[in-house]
Design brief:
heterodimer, A: mainly alpha, 3-stranded parallel sheet, 3 strands, B: 2 domains, 12 helices, 45% helix, binds iron/sulfur cluster
Chain lengths: 174, 243
């Protein structure tokens, strides 16, 4: 079972009170990677819909841009199958060029990657090909949208969102 | 784009083709290729090493096992299955790739994948980064304590470890506890707000399985069994992936 399914369920049930008001004026654009392992290879298009439902709830429908092709027909990013550990970085980046171009074509400044291999690969592609988009986990955006993303939990956010909706902290007691 | 001509060196029988046929009930449909090229045109690995999925299949059909084994391409295909998805005959090229991977002597497979698989076999945590049961428990408890002490409104945040009978057994990619533990916190906060009944387990918590990528079937099976047992031993209902 994937936690993406539960995120969607919890948003529908109102247990996770997310909203996209923070992005109404900012209009920061997001795209999402459908992980092969999750979508094409196991749970299929229904989980891709759950993923979009959550992403749209969090960043705003009008600020979400899909890649083409997508869902079960999406291109693999090149982070899977052990490619990140195979010691073939040039081939891996050449493979990932298609994904990089797909992301750049959306015009989004953030790519949400709900898979570790995708996250590592897509992050690396942005740096290598100088795409300047940011690569974030879905949990980061859900917590940001609820105003509960702590100061140490913002590693992958860009400067534009780094300080947004910062919750209150206090000094630790010794 | 002109393809390099495939040279047929005498009559050979491909063991890869035969193996895949034995393995899959419908023979993986390997004989049914229409050479339409749909697989290759949507494969990101097309062109690497002058190879593409249709050519790979063709070479196997022609018994060119040696050439397939020599090429690094089997390690450049991610086994993402997009080719099957678009293939009109649903031909299982990734299964063929898996068999080519598995036919290399184990210690000649890519070092990084081999190291990660071997590392995962060392502990019952199945962590490819070698994190032990104690390491994991310590990091989780330490990070949770820090959040309770410093973040307003999160004084009650829990990150249970080995909680008997929890509904969800949550796994975790080793990258978080080992290199960026603060990335686990957003996940815990979400689970807390949703009121989820969940736990980590000191055994079998690592989400990754490089032995599968390495096409080491025995070790792959071992890792899956360790994880399944960990879930059962805690009496959890669901194995929950963070991805
Ligand atoms: S898509 Fe299928 S039928 Fe078409 S060339 Fe590829 S393997 Fe053959
Ligand atoms: S499984 Fe391999 S051959 Fe098939 S589309 Fe993916 S990378 Fe290409």
């Amino acid at each position: 079972m994937s936690i993406i399914q539960l995120y969607a369920q919890w948003v529908r049930e109102g247990k996770l009170k997310v909203n996209s008001d923070w992005n109404k004026d900012l209009k920061v654009k997001f795209t999402v990677q459908d992980p092969c392992q999750l979508v094409r290879k196991s749970l299929g298009d229904p989980v891709a819909e759950d993923l979009r439902y959550v992403v749209k709830a969090v960043v705003g429908e009008e600020n979400f841009v899909d890649m083409t092709p997508n869902r079960s027909n999406n291109y693999c990013c090149g982070g899977g199958g052990g490619f990140l550990q195979s010691g073939l970085p040039e081939a891996r980046r050449e493979y990932g060029k298609l994904k990089f171009e797909q992301i750049m074509a959306t015009g989004a400044t953030y790519a949400i990657t709900p898979c570790h291999n995708c996250h590592a690969q897509i992050h690396d592609l942005s740096e290598h090909f100088e795409g300047h988009y940011h690569t974030v986990h879905l949990w980061t955006m859900i917590c940001l949208a609820m105003g509960i993303l702590g100061p140490n939990e913002r590693t992958y956010l860009g400067e534009d969102l780094a300080e947004l909706l910062m919750p209150e902290t206090r000094e630790a007691e010794e | 784009m002109a393809e390099e001509a495939i040279k047929i060196s005498g009559k050979k029988k491909s063991m890869f083709i035969d193996k895949v046929k034995q393995l899959l009930p419908d023979g993986g449909n390997l004989n049914l290729c229409l050479t339409c090229g749909a697989c290759s045109s949507g494969c990101p690995a097309t062109g690497l090493e002058g190879m593409d999925p249709r050519k790979f299949l063709r070479m196997a059909a022609l018994g060119m096992d040696e050439e397939l084994l020599k090429s690094e391409w089997a390690w450049m295909c991610t086994m993402c299955q997009r080719c099957i998805y678009v293939c009109p005959m649903k031909i299982d090229i990734p299964q063929l790739v898996f068999n080519v991977r598995g036919s290399r002597p184990r210690d000649e497979r890519p070092k990084g994948i081999l190291g990660s698989c071997n590392m995962a076999l060392k502990h019952d945590t199945c962590s490819a980064m070698g994190a032990s049961e104690e390491d994991f428990k310590f990091v989780v408890e330490d990070v949770a304590e820090e959040v309770r002490n410093t973040q307003v409104g999160w004084e009650e945040l829990q990150a249970p470890v080995n909680k008997q009978g929890a509904m969800y057994f949550l796994n975790q990619n080793s990258r978080e506890p080992v290199t960026e533990p603060d990335e686990m916190v957003p996940l815990w906060k979400i689970l807390h707000l949703a009121g989820a009944d969940w736990t980590y387990g000191t055994k079998g918590w690592a989400a990754e399985n490089y032995c599968m990528f390495m096409a080491d079937t025995e070790s792959w099976k071992h890792i899956v069994e360790v994880k399944a047992k960990a879930v059962d031993d805690l009496g959890c209902k669901y194995w929950l992936n963070t991805e």
